[in-house]
Amino acid sequence: IAVGYANSDIYDVAAKYNDTLGDRWKTIFNIGYAVNNGNGGENIGASGSKVFQMQGGLMDVNTGLFGTIAYQKEDADNATSGSGDDTNALYFKLGIKKNWFGFGDSAFYGEYGTYNDQFGLGNADGISGSEIRRFGFSAEQNFNGALLIYGKFENLSLDVDGSAAAKALYDGAKDLNLFTLGFTYFF
After folding, report:
1. pTM score, whole prediction
2. The 25-36 sheet, strands edge to edge
3. CB-based contacts of 160: which residues, under 8 Å, 6+ apart?
4. If we measure between CA atoms, which residue out of 55, 86, 84 comes closest to residue 69?
């Protein structure tokens, strides 16, 4: 459990639980709540914000199959309506992780997320709401904990609510497809 506090304007509390159930299941559960009464959400005209986050995951250590789910809700006080004043996000990941080749874990997974009302700063272009959908597939190879090589394909799709001009401008846009290839070296 962790608690943070700064000058009566900013505080948060979080709890994290990781355990192995029996010799087969790895579990994780995280939950957190943060309040910023000072400048939270200033970019959307807000005087403060409150954020709630939660994540849970489960992995079968025998097969390597795993899944995780995450949720976030943010409320911004006195913000411009439709500008990101009240947002939420939901994210899922399913995959498999094993040491198939003898030199480190390999992981393959798919992911899906939906992000509501997080696009349209300050009601720009007449946007009153939005939904971004994200899906992707990834492959990772870890070399004995020292080097991680990864590749990822991701698709982002945007739908907006609001004026006819906003819908015509943004709903007709092509989806954004991204491919990332990289590595991380751990010292």
Report:
1. 0.82
2. 2-6, 10-21, 25-36, 48-60, 65-77, 86-98, 106-116, 127-143, 147-162, 176-185
3. 119, 120, 127, 129, 130, 166, 167, 170, 171
4. 55
d(CA 183, CA 160): 35
Query: CA-to-CA distance for 161 and 69, rounded, in angstroms?
Result: 27
Q: Which has the higher per-residue pLDDT, 186 or 9?
A: 186
Q: Which amino acid is at 172?
A: G
Q: What are phi and psi of 25, to 5 degrees?
A: -115, 125
Residue range 20-36, pLDDT digits in tens = 988 899 999 999 999 88
**Taking Cα atoms as reference points, which of 155, 154, 122 lies closest to residue 139?**
154
* Total number of residues shown for the chain: 187
Q: What is the pLDDT of residue 128?
A: 75
